[in-house]
Amino acid sequence: MHHSSKIYVQHGRGTRCNRQMKNRHTLRQQRAADHAATAIEQMKHYYAARPGSPSARRRPQLFFRGDLWIAVLGPNLEKGIVGIGPTVAAALRAFDAQYLAALRPPNERSSPPVKPSQSCIVQLPG
Question: What residues contact 38, with CB distance under 8 A and at least 6 apart?
Answer without folding.
Answer: none
